[in-house]
Amino acid sequence: MKIRSLKNLTNAHNDSIWAVTWAPATADRGALLITGSVDESVKLWKGDELELDRTNTGHSLGVVSVAAHPSGTVAASTSLDSFVRVFDVDSNATITTLETAPSEAWLIQFDPKGEILAVAGGGSGSVKLWNTNNWRMEVPLTLPQAEASEGRSSEKHSGSGKFVLAVAWSNDGKRLACSTMNGVVAIFDAVRGKFLHTLEGHSMPVRSMAFSPVDTRVLFTVSDDKHVHMYDVESRSLISAFSGHASWVLSVDVSPDGSCLATGSSDRTVRLWDLNMRAAVQTLSDHSDQVWSVAFRPPGGDGVRAGRLASVSDDRSISLYEYT
Amino acid sequence: MGYVYIPVQNSREEVRVALDQLPRDVTDILDILKAEQAPLNLWLTFAREYFKQGKEKEFLLILQEGSSPEIDEYYSEVKYDRIAILNALGAYYTNLGKVEQKQRERESNFISATQFYNRASRIDQDEPTTWVGKGQLLLAKGELDQSYELFKIVLEGQPDNVTAILGQACVQFNRSRYQDALNLYKKAMQIHPRCPASVRLGLGLCRYRLGQVKKARQAFERVLQLDPENVEALVALGVMNINTNEPDGVREGLENMKAAYEIYPYCSMALNHLANHFFFKGQHYIVDQLMDAALASTDHLRNKAVSYYNLARSYHTKGDYTNAAVFYRASVQELKDAQEFSLPYYGLGQVHLKLGDLKTSLVHFEKVLEAHPDNCETLKAMGIIYLQQGRQDKALENFKKATKQSPRDVDAWIELGELLVSTDVGQALEAFKIAHNLLTKNEDPVPFGLLNNIGVLHFERNELEAALQAYREALGEGIWVEFSEGRSLSLCREGALPISITADKPQFEQLEEEGLSLEVPGEKVTVLFNLARLYEQQYETQKAIILYQLIVYKHPEYADAYMRLAALALARNDFAASHELVSRVLKVTEDHADALSVRGNLELKADDWLKAKETYKSVQNVDGNHSYALLALGNWNYYAAVRGERKDPKLEATHLEKAKELYQNVLVRKPNNMYAANGIGIVLAEKGIFDLSKEVFTQVQEAAAGNIAVEMPDVWINLAHIYLAQGQFALAVKMYQNCLRRFYYNTESHILLYLARTHYEAEQWQDCKRTLLRAIHLVPSNYTLRFDAAIAMQKFSTAILQRPKRTADEVRQSVAELKNALRLFSQLSGVAASHGHGFDQKKVDMHVEYCKHLLDAAKVHLEAAEREEQQNRQKQEVARQLHQAEEARRKAEEERKQQMERRLREEEASRLQREEEKLRNLMANWNTRKDVDEEEENAGEKKEKKEKNRKKKEKKRDQFLEPEEDVNYNRSPTPGEEDEQDALAAAGLLAESEEEYLRREAPPAKKGRLRRSLYELDDGDDTRRRNTTEEQFVDSDAENPGGLEDSDTEEQRPVKRRRGKQTRVSESDED
């Protein structure tokens, strides 16, 4: 288990890059890297040389999140203006524009089957769901009021704590996790649309989460408290806690084989964690500013042997690594 | 058994006297001697015998009788024996004088001795024994040179006079000419091979002094062969043996001493050495006894000093410092100076140090140092005294010298290191490391303390790996190794958290049940704590937590571990856990000042102001000097002063004053407290005394930068605030950005807000917006940031729309921004209703309305701009044409001028030609040649003049062009473009803007009103920010940054420059 820097593309955008994801390979092409930046653009990149495929405009204010449909043909991006733009990956044709007003749209994720797009609903304290067939909004999953502000009397403004930042689907599509500014991680039964319980352990913003692709019970969360937590979502127990980052941990992704974890942090590093040893095995310092997002390339596509990991940063660069 | 036979007068009979049975009453003998008119040498024999038996009185009586005038008369013929008696008396008194200490009696003895010798000389002034005696007297008096001369006189007469030779040897020995003395002793031996053992003793001593230890030893051993009971030889051998410093040698030496003691229990030297031995064996009572004996038996000053010293030392080790001091002083009194024997001075220094009398102690140590300037122990002792007296530099100097003198002295290095810790971490570390190396080289155990110190210093220098190594070495094996390696890190069973930050007793208990030893020896706790602290620094929080918990599991009284756990919980925003941990400390120690302080902090975080204040006050009750509590109270007052929407100026002033007082209080106690200084700076700034507060902040910043352990981002922020308040926006921006990057990994949204504020004040709307977007991304739940961003966008749009001149693109951009602003405001208007984020619904709605209104207006503006753009293009076209015409005209003019010139030149040429022709015509006429020459000269001159003129004109043209080009650069960054037409076009534009400038001097009323309403909106913005941040002292209400003024100067500048050039041109015209 190892990652090796392949390329650091500087000035990939004109401003900080906040989001990265991979559009899976299709029959016609390999996987594409999609990045979103404060410069209001979304860019698509090809191959190991990170050749710019296209630049999508249409967002005002910074792009906060990008997500790709498992089919690889559709992707979505959100920005600070709270619009969700769904577009065709290959033609950039706008499929639909979703609005979550008056609340915000923060991180977004398609479910593993590609039937539903989940959008972290910011101040609404809920996760908004759209059916990808007709782009109709379904009943949102709302955090119970008591859970959102539980034991945090110190929050000066009611509601600021339950701001929903991130969402994550379990690999079987049965569970959906959402996390908030005050560290609450809530687990929903996605099939029945029911709130199940919360996971204890963080008291600071949880900005990113990822389910294990091999064990649907296992959820990884990262927080401003500099920790990575590993939970069993069914028993609500904290399996392990990883420390080592010097500042906020901003994003997490699990390797496709489920044996490794990559995290990006405000401390400008990307760390690789071995889940068997439960320890950091590598620290990469390609970036010179906060690393806002990391993403492993999903398996599949022609002529693809080794895995890839991408990271993006406030330093306007994209880093590509080989994962073996 | 010897007998002396006294011949009976006038008969052959003799009286036999057994020498060991001399009559007790000496008069019996005297009577016999007198009655029988015994030979004088018998008198002497008896006297000597009495002397040998220690009966000095009898000895004296016989000799006095034997030297009385009657005897002189009676035995007047027996010169030699008379002299011998007198000389014996002389020698006796010489010896008395030699050992006498009282100066007067000493003198009188010497005088008596002199008198006897003089009498002897009168009998026969050539008698060598008298000379020898006199020589010895002088030797005893210490008049070495004269004594030597006397012996020399004897030897001139009798080269083989052994006594004289020995006398000379003695002189030489005393003159420290050991080689000479040795030679003399040798000579004496050659002459008199069977001389007494004591001669060999002299030989041995000389050799000893000369460092010929082996030969000296042989000499002493020979003495003992000849005289097994020779105490001096035994002692000398003993000293030599002891000085070998080898166990066998020392043992043998002690045997010698013991033998000497048994033979002659009054030899102080042997006693002293024995005492020394028993001292080290810890048998102090023997020491005391021996020394009493020694003191009673000797008058030798130095030996007495040693004896007193031994006694004192014995008391010293028994802890009886007062008595020790008494005897040390007694010892010192026997000595001339420390040069002679420095140990009692050292002892006195030590004892006074123990008794706390640093000054006296120092005086004595100084004396030792005078005698032995390089003595390491003394240097160290003095260093410690200086340290206690607070004379750091002196102490440092001493320890440095000590380590230089004995670079293998571990203690000195450790002391030096500890001394340097507060001033020079690097050198301190170096010293500790040397100590460490010395210990490892000697395979001595390295104390934890030293390793711990090395670790701590590495830690302070941020050399975490090295620190880790030191701590590990200090800790050795134990359960912590497992924890450090990450093994056993998760103590978890199914259904339990791996490590709760509040203690995990059951899990530890389970581990113990499983047979793991969790023992933490008491002396290792601190090192373990430091290791945990190190993990904390490496962000290995999990390891740190488990180590802290191990500590409190085994040592529940170790409050610091609880405190760190509480701090870790606090860092994670886990207030409940933090509170619980602090409470646990307070349960054990009710008045734990630090724990109380943390509790105060927690209460403040929970917005429980009164409780926090109470808690801080209670800390003060516990520990009035607790500067943290004072500081916290100061902060409390400061927050109280600037807090709240309903500000009461009077209350604010009192709170500020109180805060200042508290900060000053801290500074009085700890003049180096940066936080208190920072507080003072804030209060000053709050009062508007910016220059002074800037000074304070700058100093604090410098101090903090020099200290690795201290991180004070606050002071950077405060400095930036000052820059902002003083309108030095660029500096403020730089400062905020540096602070953000250096201390917060760019994650602190408050600083981003300050940064945005600075951009706002500087009217850099786009920068302001981008900064706020970044802040929103960090704290998306903070809606005020969105509000601010919307304001920035609105401002940007208005600014562009108000600009008298803008491109259609700019207007389009401003419309887009306006739309964004509108969207944000609308969104806020939506959430404001449901959440109440602290801003006024009405105000947001007002902004929404305003933006809508502005959007409508913008359409007009856009059209206007597009029209204007069109017009501009046309105007430019016109100007271009005009310029072309002008250019054509100028070209024509130039052409004309050139033609003129050409014509002139042609004329000139033709004139010259004519002249030439004329010349040729007049060739024959030689008289007129001179005139022609003149004329030619004139013509040349004229030509030159003309050329000059032309050059001038060209210059003029250059200068005309210059300003135009200049403008060109200003307008569009296309340097190198030399197209005259472009330059002209630019000039045209310039003229136009000048026009406009004039027009704008009386701005339309409508615009002014608009502006004012904008400001009103801003004011609302300002007060809100005041609530959320501590940027309070930045007062921006007062100034009105009039955008008009600014743009005026911008437009004026090129105009002015052009005028300047013009005047210069006219000047050059006048030339």
UniProtKB/TrEMBL annotation, chain A:
<dbReference type="InterPro" id="IPR036322">
    <property type="entry name" value="WD40_repeat_dom_sf"/>
</dbReference>
<feature type="repeat" description="WD">
    <location>
        <begin position="242"/>
        <end position="283"/>
    </location>
</feature>
<feature type="repeat" description="WD">
    <location>
        <begin position="56"/>
        <end position="97"/>
    </location>
</feature>
<dbReference type="Pfam" id="PF00400">
    <property type="entry name" value="WD40"/>
</dbReference>
<dbReference type="InterPro" id="IPR020472">
    <property type="entry name" value="WD40_PAC1"/>
</dbReference>
<feature type="repeat" description="WD">
    <location>
        <begin position="199"/>
        <end position="241"/>
    </location>
</feature>
<dbReference type="InterPro" id="IPR051510">
    <property type="entry name" value="SKI8"/>
</dbReference>
<keyword id="KW-0853">WD repeat</keyword>
<dbReference type="InterPro" id="IPR019775">
    <property type="entry name" value="WD40_repeat_CS"/>
</dbReference>
<dbReference type="GO" id="GO:0032991">
    <property type="term" value="C:protein-containing complex"/>
</dbReference>
<dbReference type="InterPro" id="IPR015943">
    <property type="entry name" value="WD40/YVTN_repeat-like_dom_sf"/>
</dbReference>
<feature type="repeat" description="WD">
    <location>
        <begin position="10"/>
        <end position="46"/>
    </location>
</feature>
<protein>
    <recommendedName>
        <fullName>Anaphase-promoting complex subunit 4 WD40 domain-containing protein</fullName>
    </recommendedName>
</protein>
<dbReference type="InterPro" id="IPR001680">
    <property type="entry name" value="WD40_rpt"/>
</dbReference>
<keyword id="KW-0677">Repeat</keyword>
From TrEMBL, chain B:
<dbReference type="InterPro" id="IPR011990">
    <property type="entry name" value="TPR-like_helical_dom_sf"/>
</dbReference>
<dbReference type="Pfam" id="PF13181">
    <property type="entry name" value="TPR_8"/>
</dbReference>
<feature type="repeat" description="TPR">
    <location>
        <begin position="376"/>
        <end position="409"/>
    </location>
</feature>
<feature type="repeat" description="TPR">
    <location>
        <begin position="197"/>
        <end position="230"/>
    </location>
</feature>
<protein>
    <recommendedName>
        <fullName>RNA polymerase-associated protein CTR9-like protein</fullName>
    </recommendedName>
</protein>
<dbReference type="GO" id="GO:0005634">
    <property type="term" value="C:nucleus"/>
</dbReference>
<dbReference type="Pfam" id="PF13424">
    <property type="entry name" value="TPR_12"/>
</dbReference>
<dbReference type="Pfam" id="PF13374">
    <property type="entry name" value="TPR_10"/>
</dbReference>
<keyword id="KW-0802">TPR repeat</keyword>
<feature type="repeat" description="TPR">
    <location>
        <begin position="162"/>
        <end position="195"/>
    </location>
</feature>
<dbReference type="InterPro" id="IPR031101">
    <property type="entry name" value="Ctr9"/>
</dbReference>
<dbReference type="Pfam" id="PF14559">
    <property type="entry name" value="TPR_19"/>
</dbReference>
<feature type="repeat" description="TPR">
    <location>
        <begin position="713"/>
        <end position="746"/>
    </location>
</feature>
<feature type="region of interest" description="Disordered">
    <location>
        <begin position="931"/>
        <end position="1071"/>
    </location>
</feature>
<feature type="repeat" description="TPR">
    <location>
        <begin position="128"/>
        <end position="161"/>
    </location>
</feature>
<feature type="repeat" description="TPR">
    <location>
        <begin position="342"/>
        <end position="375"/>
    </location>
</feature>
<dbReference type="Pfam" id="PF13174">
    <property type="entry name" value="TPR_6"/>
</dbReference>
<feature type="region of interest" description="Disordered">
    <location>
        <begin position="866"/>
        <end position="916"/>
    </location>
</feature>
<keyword id="KW-0677">Repeat</keyword>
<dbReference type="InterPro" id="IPR019734">
    <property type="entry name" value="TPR_rpt"/>
</dbReference>
